[in-house]
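Predict structure. Chain length: 860.
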Amino acid sequence: MKRTACAAFAAAILLLLSGSYRSALSQVLYGSVTGTVEDPSGAAVPGADVTIINQGTTQQTAVKSDSQGRYSLLNLLPGTYNLRVSASGFRTAEQTGIIISPNIVGRIDMKLEVGKMSEQVSVSAQAVQLQTDKADTHTEITTKAITNMPLPAYRNYQSLINLVPGATPAAFQNSVTDTPNRSLATRINGTNDNNNVTRIDGASSVNLWLPHHTGYVMPAEMVDNVNVTTSAGDAQQGFAGGAAITVVTKSGTNEFHGSAFEFHDNQHLKARNFFQAPGVDKPLSIYNNYGGTFGGPILKNKLFFFGSYDGTRQRQGSSGRYSVPTADQRAGDFSAYNTIYDPTTGTDRDPATGILTGKDRTPFAGNIIPADRISPQAAKVQSFYPLPNLPGTASNYFAQAVPAFNRDYVDVKLNYNRGDKETFWGHFGKNWDLVTGYPIFGIAGGPAPGADPGVGDTKIYIASIGHTYAFSPTFLMDNVFGYQRQDQSVLPTESFGTNYGEQLGIPGLNGPEIRQSGFPNFDFTGLDGLGYAGWIPAFRTEENFTMSHNFTWVKSAHEIRFGFDGVLYRMSHWQPELGAGPRGDISFTGGVTALNGGDAPSQYNAYAAFLLGDPTNMQKSLQYILMTPREWRFGFYGQDRWQVTPKLTVSYGLRYEYYPLMTRAHGKGIERLDPDTNLVYLGGRGDIPNNVGVTTSKLLFAPRIGFAYRLDDKTVLRSGYGINYDPMPLSRPLRGFYPLTVNFAFPGPNGFTQAVDSNGSPLDLATGMPPVVGPDLSTGIVNLPAPASERSPYAGELHRGYIQSWNFTLERQLPSNVLASIAYVGTQTVHQFADLDINAGYPGSGSAGLPYAAKFGRTQ
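Prediction complete.
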């Protein structure tokens, strides 16, 4: 359980510059205006004609005031509007320059003067308005703030979320290879960062593998408005336990508008690092971000377009010092170092197992390995190592590289006004990225200064279609369909496609399919190893499907809204990263050439064992089952915004959410470990049901309630309460554990003997990796091997936690168009998703102290 509270005093420094703190949340993608029409004495004017006109497109929406003079104008697309009110016996009143933003309810009360309708009184709207009709806490970030304020982190609009009260500083969380969009993660009011959910023009945008990241980071020049709701939002907003972030893109108007930009930075514009050696040039650092926008009419007053291009080119030089074997070590001459023992000597054996203990070994003569004892395979492998270019045996190799980062965006939006009753709009965006890290050992891989080694190729697509229809001025419908897709591959830079294990003469390392190709991994104690990280290669495809259908009915003092929300997440990942990786990994820790009971094995012992061809461990992991999570989530809601008196507005609603249990493609279910038997049950295989005994709740009700009371024309008191459920996709924690990914390990019987196969026969570089055979899945039940890790839900109901949020706010409009707010905001998280390590032991107890070590031989 987590609880946090914050008090915030915001003197809205957001004056005319950004207008970014405005009135409250409404219909998510659209704005609305409400108010009353009165005569000079303050009496209601029923039947008045109220019309709002979009200045950019001339689109009109008209209603009549009711018997109490009330009116509501709904489903208004973002833009600048004029409001006109007319009634018989009164002059026509007009207010111009009204800014309509998504998720906003603006209040405009109109007083009519006695006179002829042909006479007109016109005033300009205020730049900022009080939040008079809703109780939520939110921050609005407008296009002016985004384009005019300095944006760090690749000109990312998300950096402005730092200005949201209760937000922790937004920061990068993963490498540029994994997240080339450079999404920022933040925590809001103490909630988990994977509880924040972003929707772009109504389309859910979540990186399933890294759910604390937005899937598509909209370029700054394309953003029209960002609304960040942090507490007590409407019942329409769901699937977001922390912040509900709504991003709306720009639309075209009847006038052509465009822009062009470029931002440039390089090492010559930066200060020298204080610790940089004198006379050494500053590392290469070039950053270019450029692009432009253009929008306008296709058919005047009917069809409009807006588009943008954003490109980034970055070259960020980096360097480092690494450890490689010296010339004498490569020749097997360790006379200058600690003692190297011959693993073929000694006779002392463990009486229980009969295995040599290594306690009575004898050293090599002169501490030199004879040339005829050096493995031919090891000689081939070490030819890929460069000689040191610095003195010493550690950090003796200096290398530098210039990783490349190329990123491009294209976004287009169309708006079509079919008539005063019906509108359509659509947005399509594509982002493609290429990230290249250059390993210091070339084909043989190794570390890559300043980047992940390899080539990351990412393409992200996002699209949404919206529709609004007015059955009558008081009954409206709006719909959204959204789709997002990410295709990503990360490959070894140069070695992909070639089975280097065969060329090196080491059988069993690569495999029959190209995804297992590349240079194998060779790990040495005290040296930088050859090969690529076990998580490379990676092939990731993720999809978000969104649909939303909403209806609004205005009846007297009530604005009733109800609807349905559905999201489907799909993933298809090939990445056997839980273990050594698909190319195979050979480890040399040094115990093979050390004396059991003598000095601790060193890097010299490790490299000597390598030259002899005697590894400590051989491993290889396979993607035994493709990772294909499928997750639905459904939401139904109803809410009422009730204008109880001219000064008091109360909102109340109820949302129901249902999160069916995650499944996998082709009719398969999830996996579950039974800790009492050490058996893994595979849903949808054999006679095992898809849910493997795990259920989800069908009672996830989320009430929302709030009020806003206008103390006077310049002061509002608000308070609200709401519940949201933890939206974290299970695709992340249940992505790829055993037996989806199977790691085959062949360690030595102890730390001072070489690796052995399943029959206890010694393994060396010449014998290579034994054939690997995965578990039999036909019965749907497999035993969990001792060294394997597993992440699994318990049998029974899977509890999806919930977040309670509440606030109490006083807001005042000050002179010079300044808003000041003081608020208390609280959140409490109950039953948050978390991992429980059921095999945790006491510090220092070793494997013997693990709860399942004695029972099942479990080490993890």
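Summary: The longest strand covers residues 454-472.
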